[in-house]
């Protein structure tokens, strides 16, 4: 049979009097960023005189393009990761460095702490891009057909990463050979043995069904990642004090909601894999060993000192 | 494809004008036959587009080779190939404008007759010239503003990438102006709406 | 309201013979200028962004591949092999015509290239052998639509990028429908030719058959490179397009079919077609950005849900819309304009984007042989010097197999989705 009939329920009409902010991001409508984060944001802003109109799935542009639009005032809000912010303010990229955080609490404390606040303020000064909030996006883990415990296990392993310089550096620092590749080609490449391994947050691994073609998920936890919610100077300065505080509160609630959703997903999928007889979960990973190797490599980066500062402050 | 099999502009008018209709993409059209300087410029466009096409092909092959031959594949081939495609697109679009073979819908034009067709064509050219000029101008400003942004893998300034649009729309603007002039001064060499169909289409 | 103005402006500009790329750019640029919250810089950014894609790179490469294959003379070898193999059948040149197109389809991603190449050689050959000119034109035009259904396919690349689905999946999804089309065309040839006892060639010896088959074998190499490379995961579709070009280049050198001048002309012919198409891709990206900003998918969804909530009815509506659009607009442009709006709506009906993709592509391909703006009709007319009405008359009997194939594709998703999911693409 072809497709399924659709229930005709009326879509919630927007508040005609409220100030509408267009928000662009690259995640699908089913992703926690939209389903938990933006949904919460919309609910919290209800009645505040502000409302969010969300454009998922890169409809208004990819991360780099959306940031350019935000900076120039052509777009009200965009969600982008640290590597993309790093194009505008070098130091912002530090948040994508390997083994910067021990856990998610650590991530939350850091993005809200003084050091990063200063970095984000510099970004605002130099580029008119205002970071409103940082949402936890997931922790990246390495899947492979063997157990990876130490850097030696990485030897000779071709591991796919997104095509961004820092991701390649992270894997190199851990002892792997990074091969950049588009996400939708990874399944087949793993199946055919063109690459041996890949790394992603658990929900992504599950959605892309990589657990079908890989024997082990190794809990390397090498990147505890977040995404930043940004707006432009003109929009931010155009807000009244009431609107700003409403937006700040809504952002905080949305950040919590997203974190809860992502952590729930990570946990329940992992439980499922542990119980099932498909992919095996390897928890015996020498994270300290990887972390110290990563630290050495990350200090060579332009924001090496900042990396050190954040680690020391934990 | 053989010489005579190529679709020609089947239009007696241009024969009277003493102008040989180009049958191949490397043969000169009317303005090229009239001006050596213009012909030189178009040949530069031809060479540039071919070089970009071959260069893009080379980058694709290099990407495959680097993955299977070297232990660490190059991370910049993909990005550079994309940028080469952007330049190829806009410079080719300029050359295609010079040859007057951008894809259009010939529904109405084919029913208008020769004079009506030329009037309509001139109108289309004016509109195209206006928007191409605007895009070239806006593109130059946008490219200048993107100067401080570097592409992640190649560290090329994004202004280099956006300049492709400036060049492409600039070329389209200039070629459109020339065709407007030719439509008025030499209407006899304007190709019919239904000529060149095969070369336009995919 | 804004959406309606955009749409009307597009149609008016198209009717006034403004190039498709500019008919898309003009209303979009006007929108960006008039909306105080938009910036003209974004118009430049989105236009460039439309071709900032590794997947789109496959488009000029596949055009080059087809042009190079044409020059290299592999089509003659395919033709010889087909004649030797099935020349003794009644109405054999009809089947030969379909078979040659099928063989060539593994090297060419576009229908026009096939119609032009085959129209030049096979229509005169068929007429000379006593076939009716209408029949020769009809079978050539109809079978040219096989090329974009079989990988490589330019519409498939464009659709995949526009809808955000895997190019490989879409390539695989087209194969079974293409085979159905081949069967449907052969059935039509059989129906039209079954009484024509006189239209057959002497049976070839097994020796000739073997010799011509071996000579045509290198043509299969292209299929091997593209399909094998993608299926084994060794190359991405874009990389396969580049490797395919190199393969055909080597083949042309072996056949001694290439001079520097011919190579230059082949490159320039590729530039001419790609330049035009890629600028449409770029302009459509900006047009699509405006549509998304104005919530066009939601508006379309609400409009359609007013009419129906049944997927079958929705698919029928889509088919009717696409057949109409296909009559006036060229497939790539139509895909770029319609898919960003249609696909999200189809998704709410639970229709797989890969299934929708093949349906959309085949639908628009039918438009290539439908008046008033069927490009295959015009190209066939121009390369054979036959008047357009004669071409139309010839192609009429072939609409039945086309529509039958379309209905099968539409209502039996397994035909499109079966192969790609079997191969791990879905
Ligand atoms: Na094909
Ligand atoms: Na054919």
Automatic annotation (TrEMBL), chain B:
Question: What's an example Gene Ontology biological process for this entry?
Answer: C4-dicarboxylate transport
Where does this chain mainly localize? membrane
Transmembrane annotation, as ranges: 47-68, 80-98, 118-140, 160-182
The annotated region (Disordered) lies at 1-29
Classification via InterPro entries = DctQ (IPR055348), TRAP_DctQ (IPR007387)
Give the CC-aspect GO terms: plasma membrane
User: Upper taxonomic classification of the species?
Assistant: Bacteria, Bacillati, Actinomycetota, Actinomycetes, Micrococcales
Q: What family is reported?
A: Belongs to the TRAP transporter small permease family.
Per UniProt, subcellular location reads as: Cell inner membrane
Q: Under which name does UniProt file this protein?
A: TRAP transporter small permease
> What PANTHER family does its record include?
2,3-DIKETO-L-GULONATE TRAP TRANSPORTER SMALL PERMEASE PROTEIN YIAM
Q: Which Pfam families match?
A: DctQ
Keywords from the UniProt entry: Cell inner membrane, Cell membrane, Membrane, Transmembrane, Transmembrane helix, Transport
What is the membrane topology noted in the UniProt record heading this document? Multi-pass membrane protein
An example of a GO molecular function for this protein is: transmembrane transporter activity
- Where the record annotates domain Tripartite ATP-independent periplasmic transporters DctQ component, the positions are 58-185
TrEMBL record, chain C:
Provide the species name: Arthrobacter echini
CC per GO annotation: plasma membrane
Keywords (A to Z) from UniProt: Cell inner membrane, Cell membrane, Membrane, Transmembrane, Transmembrane helix
Query: Which Pfam families does this entry report, sorted A to Z?
Result: DctM
Output the lineage of the source organism: Bacteria, Bacillati, Actinomycetota, Actinomycetes, Micrococcales
Compartment(s) where it occurs, according to its Swiss-Prot or TrEMBL record: Cell inner membrane
Give TM segment ranges.
47-66, 104-123, 135-161, 167-192, 213-234, 240-258, 270-292, 312-342, 354-378, 398-425
Tell me the ranges covered by the TRAP C4-dicarboxylate transport system permease DctM subunit domain, including all copies. 7-415
Q: Which GO terms describe its molecular function?
A: transmembrane transporter activity
- Give a yes or no for keyword Transmembrane in this entry: yes
Q: How does it sit in the membrane?
A: Multi-pass membrane protein
Provide the primary localization: membrane
The molecule here is called TRAP transporter large permease
């Amino acid at each position: 049979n072809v497709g399924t009939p659709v229930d005709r329920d009326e879509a919630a009409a927007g508040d005609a009097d409220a100030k509408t902010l267009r928000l662009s991001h690259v995640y699908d409508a089913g992703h926690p960023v939209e389903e938990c984060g933006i949904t919460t944001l919309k609910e919290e802003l209800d009645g505040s005189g502000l409302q969010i109109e969300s454009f998922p799935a890169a409809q208004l542009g990819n991360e780099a393009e959306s940031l350019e639009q935000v900076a120039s005032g052509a777009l009200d809000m965009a969600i982008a990761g640290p590597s993309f912010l790093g194009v505008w303010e070098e130091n912002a990229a530090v948040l994508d460095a390997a083994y910067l955080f021990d856990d998610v609490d650590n991530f939350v404390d850091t993005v809200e702490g003084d050091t990063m606040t200063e970095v984000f303020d510099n970004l605002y000064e130099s580029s008119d891009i205002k970071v409103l909030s940082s949402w936890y996006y997931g922790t990246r883990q390495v899947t492979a057909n063997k157990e990876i415990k130490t850097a030696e296990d990485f030897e000779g392993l071709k591991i796919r990463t997104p095509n961004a310089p820092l991701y390649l550096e992270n894997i190199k620092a851990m002892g792997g050979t990074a091969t950049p590749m588009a996400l939708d080609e990874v399944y087949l490449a793993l199946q055919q043995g063109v690459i041996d391994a890949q790394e992603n947050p658990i929900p992504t691994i599950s959605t892309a069904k990589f657990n079908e073609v890989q024997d082990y998920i190794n809990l390397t936890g090498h990147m505890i990642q977040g995404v930043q919610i940004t707006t432009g100077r003109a929009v931010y300065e155009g807000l009244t004090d009431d609107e700003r505080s409403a937006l700040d509160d809504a952002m905080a609630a949305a950040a919590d909601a997203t974190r809860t959703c992502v952590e729930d997903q990570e946990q329940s999928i992992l439980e499922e894999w542990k119980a099932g007889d498909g992919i095996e979960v390897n928890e015996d990973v020498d994270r300290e060993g990887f972390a110290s190797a990563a630290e050495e490599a990350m200090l060579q980066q332009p924001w090496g000192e900042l990396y050190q500062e954040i680690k020391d402050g934990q | 494809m053989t010489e005579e099999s190529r679709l020609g502009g089947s239009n007696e008018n241009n024969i009277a004008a003493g102008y040989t209709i180009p049958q191949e993409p490397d043969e000169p059209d009317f303005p090229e036959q009239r001006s050596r300087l213009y012909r030189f410029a178009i040949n530069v466009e031809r060479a540039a587009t071919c070089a970009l096409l071959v260069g893009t092909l080379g980058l694709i092959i290099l990407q495959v080779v680097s993955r299977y031959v070297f232990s660490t594949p190059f991370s910049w081939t993909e990005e550079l190939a994309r940028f080469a495609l952007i330049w190829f697109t806009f410079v080719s679009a300029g050359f295609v404008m010079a040859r007057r073979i951008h894809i259009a819908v010939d529904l109405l034009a084919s029913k208008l007759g020769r004079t009506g067709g030329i009037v309509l064509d001139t109108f289309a050219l004016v509109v195209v010239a206006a928007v191409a000029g605007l895009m070239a101008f806006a593109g130059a400003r946008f490219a200048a503003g993107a100067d401080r942004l570097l592409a992640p893998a190649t560290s090329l300034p994004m202004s280099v990438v956006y300049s492709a649009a400036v060049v492409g729309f600039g070329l389209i603007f200039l070629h459109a102006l020339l065709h407007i002039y030719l439509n008025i001064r030499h209407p006899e060499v304007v190709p019919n709406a239904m000529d060149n169909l095969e070369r336009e289409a995919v | 309201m804004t959406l309606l103005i955009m749409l009307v402006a597009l149609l008016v500009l198209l009717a006034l013979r403004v190039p498709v790329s500019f008919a898309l750019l003009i209303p979009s640029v006007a929108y960006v200028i008039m909306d105080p919250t938009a910036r003209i810089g974004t118009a430049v950014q989105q236009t460039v962004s439309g071709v900032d894609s590794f997947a789109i790179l496959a488009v000029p490469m596949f055009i080059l591949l087809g042009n190079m294959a044409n020059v290299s003379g592999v089509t003659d070898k395919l033709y010889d092999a087909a004649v030797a193999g099935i020349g003794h059948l009644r109405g054999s040149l009809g089947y030969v015509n379909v078979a040659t197109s099928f063989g060539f389809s593994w090297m060419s991603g576009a229908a026009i290239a096939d119609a032009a190449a085959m129209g030049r050689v096979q229509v005169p050959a068929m007429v000379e052998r006593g076939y009716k000119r209408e029949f020769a034109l009809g079978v050539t035009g109809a079978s040219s639509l096989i090329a974009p259904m079989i990988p490589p396919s330019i519409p498939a690349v464009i659709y995949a990028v526009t809808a955000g689905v895997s190019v490989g999946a879409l390539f695989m999804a087209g194969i079974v429908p293409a085979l159905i089309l081949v069967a449907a065309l052969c059935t039509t040839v059989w129906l039209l030719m079954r009484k024509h006892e006189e239209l057959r060639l002497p049976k070839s010896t097994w020796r000739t058959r073997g010799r011509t088959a071996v000579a045509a074998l290198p043509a299969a190499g292209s299929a091997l490179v593209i399909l094998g490379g993608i299926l084994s995961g060794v190359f991405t579709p874009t990389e396969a397009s580049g490797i395919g070009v190199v393969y055909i280049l080597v083949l042309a050198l072996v056949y001694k079919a290439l001079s520097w001048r011919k190579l230059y002309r082949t490159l320039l012919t590729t530039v001419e077609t790609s330049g035009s198409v890629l600028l449409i891709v770029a302009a459509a990206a900006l047009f699509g950005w405006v549509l998304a900003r104005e919530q066009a998918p939601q508006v379309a969804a609400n409009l359609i849900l007013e009419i129906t909530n049944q997927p079958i009815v929705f698919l029928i509506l889509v088919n009717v819309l696409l057949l109409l659009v296909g009559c006036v607009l060229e497939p790539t442009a139509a895909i770029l304009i319609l898919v960003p709006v249609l696909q999200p709506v189809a998704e709410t009906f639970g229709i797989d984007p890969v299934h929708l993709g093949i349906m959309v592509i085949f639908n628009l391909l039918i438009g290539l042989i439908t008046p008033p703006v069927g490009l295959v009709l015009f190209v066939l007319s121009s390369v054979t010097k036959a008047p357009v009405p004669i071409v139309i008359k010839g192609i009429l009997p072939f609409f039945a197999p086309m529509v039958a194939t379309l209905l099968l594709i539409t209502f039996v998703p397994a035909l499109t989705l079966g192969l790609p999911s079997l191969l791990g693409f879905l």
